[in-house]
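User: Can you predict the 3D structure for this chain?
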Amino acid sequence: MKPKKTRPKKKSNLTSRNLVKKRPDIIYRYMWLIDIIYHSTEGITFEEINLQWMKNSISNSQALPLRTFHNYRKTIKELFGLEIYCNRKNSFKYKINQANKFGSVKNRLINLFMLNYYILENPLLEDRITIINNDDGQKWIKSIIDIISKDAIIQVMINNNVLLIKPHSLEQVDGKWYMSYYHKEELNNLLRIELSKIDHIEIKENW
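Assistant: Here is the predicted structure, written as structure tokens:
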């Protein structure tokens, strides 16, 4: 009788982003950990983190394994760029590296996640918090980000006027989205336009 051939085990392809997709609740664990450590001005030990963890509903009354804690630290750094480091000279207390510099988009993303986390923990807040996000110009954001990444030239139509421009950056000011760009005739000057005023966008090969 011939021995059965064993198939090699497939390597796990569970990346940080795949984990978030498979377990949407995991993001709130990250938010909880960021919140606890961020607001501990003098730092916080793993034991203190675990005590707070056990008091929270997300723990399911189970302690936070040290290995899981370190995995969370790694994933938080990958997803949000936040480094949770251990100060071995100060009773092995953990802090968030304030030396890190984050772009405004990432800051807003973290703040939105944190806000959702607070509402999840306090359902009564849901009807008392209003986020205004009614800018018509945001429909162009995905396209313009792709264009900027390709360093492409575009033709935009604004009130039946056609402009040939090169997008440079995006920013949100007072709830409105703006695009900074270069015009062919003013390559040394960075101009700006409100996205909600754009009627049409078309990519061009050159000027």
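The CA atoms of residues 39 and 87 lie 16 Å apart. The chain has a mean pLDDT of 82.
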